[in-house]
Amino acid sequence: MTGIKLDITRASASLSDLQKQIPFMAATAINDVAFQVQRAENEAMGDIFHNPRPFTQRATQVEKATKANPRAVVSLRPAQARYLEPYEDGGEHATAGNNSSLLVPVDARTDQYGQMTKGAIARFVSRDDTFVGIGPKGIMGIWQRVKPAAVGRKGKRNGIRQAKPALKLLVRFVPNQQVHKRLGFKERAVRIVTLDGGAAIAKAVQRVLATAFR
């Protein structure tokens, strides 16, 4: 009979180290998937909305998992969530300030994304030649009084006739309405976790094994 004895001290130590690495492995895999979800959600903004601002394309944030708390949270940043949540949960468009109407630029300067610049409404209403109210054809909005040029009255020497100021619509107030597009935030996140979660775990395991047994 031949007795066989193996020294498993090193292997036991490695396995013990491996056990200690499991929380790190879990957090690494979870964060890997969480950032994949974040990238996909941000990229989807360009497919859902026409020419969105970079601010909207960076709407998603990640609260990372840790060894002590193996849970990551992918969510909309508060500032963007205010106007994006109706596209996820349904409801009316978010409006600016206390306004209950949608503000549609008509003869107001817009940026490259087709939107009025920050503070444009405040500047309009503070001007002496504008007012907020109902104009021709019952249209509610911000109107500008355009002073016409003085014209001579026929048959009267040196006579000057001052025409009434014309009104130019700068911003139209449109009744709010339900959103029709859908963000699909939750469905997209679930799909990515389902498809890529296993690969992220395998990658994290390989990383831990390479460290433990080298």
TrEMBL record:
The protein, known as: Uncharacterized protein
Organism of origin: Acetobacter tropicalis
Organism phylogeny: Bacteria, Pseudomonadati, Pseudomonadota, Alphaproteobacteria, Acetobacterales
